[in-house]
Amino acid sequence: FRSTVSGKDVTIVRNGKSETQTASGAWFITDGYSPTAMQEQMMRWWLSHGKPKDFAVYPSKAKVRIEPAEDLNVAGMPAHGYTVSGLIWGQESLWMDDSQNLMALVSTDAEFDHFEAVRQAYETHLQMFIAGAVKAELAALAKLTATSRMAPATKLAIVGATLEDSTGAAPVKDSVIVIEAGRITAVGPRGQTKIPQGATILDASGKYALPGLWDMHAHYEQVEWGPIYLAAGVTSVRDVGNEFEFIRTLHDELDSKDNAAIGPHLEFAGVIDGLGPISLGVTTAETPEQAVQWVEKYKKAGAKQIKIYSSVKPEVVRAITEAAHARGMTVTGHIPEGMTAIEGVNDGMDQINHISYELPYFTRPVSAADGKSDYTKPPILDLSGPRMRDLVSTLQSHHTVLDPTAALYQLFLHSKPLEELEPGITHLPPQWREALDSPPATGERAALADGRWQAIIASLRLLHTAGITIVAGTDQGIPGYSLHRELEVYVEAGFTPLEALQAATIEAARALGVEKESGSLEVGKRGDVLLLNADPLADIHNTRAVWRTVSQGAVYDPAPLWQSVGFLP
Q1: CA–CA separation, 292 vs 278, rounded Å?
Q2: Using alpha carbons only, what angle is made at residue 353 by residues 351 and 359, rounded to the nearest 5 degrees?
Q3: 319/259 Cα distance (integer angstroms)
Q4: Per-residue pLDDT tens for 448-475?
Q5: First-to-last CA distance in the chain?
Q6: Are 506 and 211 in contact (CB under 8 A)?
């Protein structure tokens, strides 16, 4: 399109059709630039027009705000940092040189995955820009979320809630949970638990207290995910695949002892892929020697696990698992192309992401007239065959842990309006809803979707009945809400509400080897508490009824957290 300006009226011409919009205050017109060129032109306009506090961008009418951020020294050149909000969902970071040329942009793409652009002269400094973006955006986020957090208390006593610890112990009515310096120091019935002198009292009468939840399949794409997780009652996440410098910097900032950034406790698995048509990222290993180097690098960065991705060769899989185990790490991930789940487990994988790698053992496709598989028909369940028995016995003997991400598949396999299955879709910012809200399948596509979904439910039920450890994760999905949907799916598959909760609490902590730190409400563990308005053991849907989230003793109100990142509470 092209644009012309007349007074405060902005005329946009697209494909020969004119549209006039009335501009108020400061405004900037985007043209047919690439994202980087548009950002550069916008910054030059902003710098030359008195740096307005905020302004409208046409034709989208988006309200944009630019804030100065920390400058960087890049190869002896000053890089002037800025944080931009309003152009997309979330914040972007960019740097300009003294001549007002764009040096680097750290942003996201249309699918909310990482996107970076850097001028060629500064390409070797990309990791510095990524780390700088994390710090700048966390600093800006702290201002946005300031009203969501109660004043920090050295001693906090949560009193009056019904304690449901997810360990299987009987609920404790009228309980007391004492948290000092971020750790639980006392927990039990009010009549038997001393409240320290000077403690801040949080009256939770009529509420239900359980351990803060784990999301065991996270991809922390933007710092804005921190408030999203906390608002949903998620106090710990396992990131299973991210840019090295981004996740290392975020891990350090969230784990800071002095002034921790807003967000959940973060553990991460360092991703390694091979080369191929579906290869992911730049952390690739084609030889066992390269694999060992990456394992060592991730170990030094603080990773608890390694994640294998889809293009890793079998001999490299074995090298990764051996190197990780030798360093006290475990291995999770995809089953690489050309391998089976049984082969992955036998080659040393401790855990598997996604139910899709187990489904071939429980189903078989319909055969067409020519003898080939017909994938346009729902799969045929085969829940008692030898392949199923081989898989289950292999998983049992190796104590393999699965995170099915079942709710993720329902985004694509639904014959009902998505909001009936996941009401969280109605709370999303417009950009997120547009990307995720697919229409329900109809006709033959509905039958196919329903058949595949029932295969997922049946497979989950059988795996659970067989005693396979299952932990709850989302793989993003609908931010914050999909974890609750994951637990609801588990109950549909035959879990009790308690067993579903355990998949997001104590079983999750055990899977990462941090059960002494998290997963239940016991003395010595992190002060992570989810306070609900209704009883989740009576109805698993009540995990959505978040009243307050307590993360290492800090108390958060979910509504302003949602609002800080553009969600409807």
Answers
A1: 22
A2: 105
A3: 39
A4: 999 999 999 999 999 999 999 999 999 9
A5: 37
A6: yes
